[in-house]
């Protein structure tokens, strides 16, 4: 079987299949490549015959072809399934710009509010959840009130009447549900078995710089807690994994990186603050589902849907101290402006 050589129709078919999916694992690629090679070679090729080497050769050819169109192929380990995932990412525009080509301004504003909820409101030193349930994303439907437009100055330095800024209408509940499902179908969000929404591996790869620029403080002191954190081992973003037991420490580890990481250390202590690493402090769903309050709720019967949503909000909502700190930060930013 041939996997490399001159770029041909087989490579083009692979690129088309890859772009249609957005992401691909080796297992997903095997039947695709088997079908392509069956046509090229004129005899049946089974998916089990497709090796990592053949897959890599097609990835290399696709990467070279896509680079001329300002695309690249990147890969990461899925934080839950622990399978390696390859994705086609745009190298010249951010994901918000890409989404704007197929979605309305109201839909894009809704997605931004969802991301703000994931990485700002429900992501704090106390609890790094970085996911939403259905009730929480429905709270993002309503657009915030438009801020008064600043008065402009004419050429002679006189004040003009303030211009009215355009107010986005927000989304209806049914529209929000359709948008979230669309984001899952397009590979930007994932929905877990428990019904929680979080960013997909593709989104984390494509949004890496945007998330850091948007939610991290560039003026923070070294070691100061930040909202977007990276695995101490592989250096990819951590939205599912383990955290240091010290609340303000930024050290995080993916579950799939943990074993190999600790094999290189003499003792199981945080490499930054030396706090013993007990493996019982989490990032992502387990930051909520491993709490005593959540476990107790699983033993109750009856109408659990509404109670579960209310419980999620109760567990994940910022406490008074965090809200006071956020208000102070917002006030300081306004004063600086």
UniProtKB/TrEMBL annotation:
Residue ranges of every copy of the Non-structural maintenance of chromosomes element 1 RING C4HC3-type domain listed in the record: 231-273
Quaternary assembly: Component of the Smc5-Smc6 complex.
UniProt keyword terms in alphabetical order: DNA damage, DNA recombination, DNA repair, Metal-binding, Nucleus, Transferase, Ubl conjugation pathway, Zinc, Zinc-finger
Protein name: Non-structural maintenance of chromosomes element 1 homolog
Species, as recorded: Apiospora aurea
Zinc-finger as UniProt keyword: yes
Leader sequence segment: none
Domain of life: Eukaryota
CDD domains in UniProt: RING-CH-C4HC3_NSE1
EC number: 2.3.2.27
């Amino acid at each position: 079987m041939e996997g490399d050589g001159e770029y041909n129709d087989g490579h083009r078919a692979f690129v088309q299949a890859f772009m249609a999916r957005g992401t691909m694992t080796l297992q997903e690629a095997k039947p695709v490549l088997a079908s392509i090679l069956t046509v090229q070679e004129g005899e049946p090729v089974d998916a089990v015959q497709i090796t990592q080497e053949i897959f890599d050769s097609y990835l290399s050819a696709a990467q070279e072809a896509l680079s001329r169109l300002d695309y690249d192929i990147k890969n990461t380990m899925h934080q839950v399934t622990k399978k390696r995932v390859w994705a086609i990412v745009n190298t010249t525009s951010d994901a918000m710009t890409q989404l704007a080509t197929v979605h309305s301004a109201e839909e894009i504003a809704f997605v931004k509010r969802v991301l703000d909820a994931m990485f700002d409101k429900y992501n704090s030193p106390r609890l790094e959840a970085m996911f939403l349930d259905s009730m929480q994303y429905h709270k993002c439907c309503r657009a915030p009130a438009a801020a008064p437009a600043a008065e402009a100055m004419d050429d002679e330095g006189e004040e003009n009447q303030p211009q009215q800024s355009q107010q986005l209408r927000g989304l209806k509940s049914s529209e929000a549900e359709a948008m979230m499902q669309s984001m899952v179908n397009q590979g930007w969000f994932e929905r877990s078995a428990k019904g929680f929404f979080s960013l997909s591996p593709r989104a984390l790869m494509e949004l890496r710089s945007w998330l850091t620029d948007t939610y991290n403080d560039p003026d923070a002191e070294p070691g100061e807690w930040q909202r977007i954190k990276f695995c101490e081992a592989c250096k990819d973003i951590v939205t599912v994994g383990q955290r240091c037991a010290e609340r303000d420490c930024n050290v995080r580890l993916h579950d799939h990186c943990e074993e190999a990481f600790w094999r290189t250390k003499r003792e199981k202590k945080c490499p930054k603050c030396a706090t013993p690493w007990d493996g019982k402090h989490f990032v992502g769903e387990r930051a909520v589902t491993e709490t005593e309050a959540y476990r107790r709720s699983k033993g109750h019967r009856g109408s659990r849907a509404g109670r579960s949503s209310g419980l999620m909000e109760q567990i994940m909502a910022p406490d008074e101290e965090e809200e006071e700190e956020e208000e102070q930060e917002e006030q300081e930013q306004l004063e600086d402006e």
